[in-house]
Design goal:
single chain, mainly beta, Porin, 17-stranded mixed β-sheet, two-stranded antiparallel sheet, 59% strand
Length: 329
């Protein structure tokens, strides 16, 4: 028997960040690309909005003959931002589903002030991702699922005269693949799910502007492949333990506009130095039939400490508190 549709609006999520870092999330990552709505019972829909008002600063240490040179990134170089998420799942039977998930997985809005070593530089990136998934039970306690992802990315980068007087504008669309499997033991709310997302290569054109004028050039950028491991188990009938581990192949992510690279000896505009390895652990508590609360703590290894307009960082610690009202018809 398929349950009646449920509609969930997750409350504002407030993240408290503290760590030496040069970006508000792992490199340009925001949403974490979760597919967990597919495991909700029956037909299901949800929507969420996250607002972040970061206060971020940092420093860059450069080895020199006279000793390390420490330069500041400037205070609060990342503007406030928000991102949307939504999911709709239809369950033709208890053993199958089809789902559409929307998220905004990558983004940034960095503006460097006069006190920064990147004074006058700006970078903005936005993304929208639609994941269409189908799945079913291969064994009584084992789910397999897969699907496709459609992604749109647009970006603008501006470097002041001190850094060559350069501007980049681009917008591209592309698709990728998703595969995964999960083991469940519903009587104790246990689940272990592994999800792989392929690299998505966005090919198109860019408008590059220099002191010599503007030109439309071929442009390609690939958002990285990733793996999510999601684990949960019941601790008491109203308490849930949750763990997420995530790997993202950020060392394969490079932004190399044609004219910028030619003018700078083949250099990349953006080139992260490390892959991201991150993890969160949390506890969810059911407060009423329609309200739950959660607390999560996390650690992120970062993507390297080499200076970049996209602002990599060394590592990050997070704490997240939120509530989820769940009105049902």
């Amino acid at each position: 028997m398929i349950s009646s549709p449920r509609f969930v609006l997750s409350a504002l999520a407030l993240g408290l960040l503290s760590a030496p870092m040069l970006s508000q999330a792992a490199s340009i990552e925001r949403s974490g690309q979760s597919i967990l709505p597919i495991f909700e019972k029956g037909n299901y829909a949800e929507a969420s909005y996250v607002f972040v008002n970061p206060d971020i600063s940092g420093e860059v240490t450069t080895p020199t003959a006279g000793g390390p040179l420490v330069q500041q990134t400037g205070d609060n170089f990342s503007d406030e931002y928000g991102y949307l998420g939504a999911a709709v799942k239809l369950a033709p039977s208890d053993d199958s589903f089809i789902a559409l998930i929307y998220d905004e997985p990558f983004g940034l809005d960095n503006q460097y002030g006069s006190e920064s070593i990147l004074s006058g530089a700006q970078a903005e990136l936005n993304s929208q991702n639609y994941s269409l998934l189908v799945g079913g039970k291969a064994l009584p306690n084992v789910w397999v699922y897969g699907g496709v992802a459609y992604q749109h990315i647009d970006a603008n980068v501006s470097l002041p005269t001190a850094f060559g007087g350069y501007n980049l504008d681009t917008a591209n669309d592309a698709g990728g693949l998703i595969v995964g499997a999960a083991y469940e033991k519903p009587e104790i709310a246990l689940r272990l799910a592994a999800t792989y997302r392929s690299e998505i290569e966005n090919k198109g054109t860019a408008i590059e502007t220099t002191a010599l004028g503007s030109a439309k050039t071929p442009f390609s950028v690939s958002t990285p492949q990733s793996v999510n491991l999601d684990f949960q188990t019941g601790v008491t009938p109203s308490t849930l333990l949750m763990v997420n581990l995530r790997w993202v192949d950020w060392t394969a992510f490079k932004v190399t506009p044609q004219n910028y690279s030619l003018a700078n000896g083949g250099a990349d505009l953006v080139n992260f130095q490390k892959d991201q390895y991150s993890g969160t652990i949390g506890v969810g508590q059911k407060l009423t039939d329609n309200l739950s609360a959660s607390i999560k703590a996390g650690y992120d290894t970062g993507t390297g400490d080499e200076p970049s307009i996209f602002g990599p960082y060394e590592e990050k610690y997070t704490c997240l508190l939120y509530t989820s009202p769940s009105p049902r018809d």
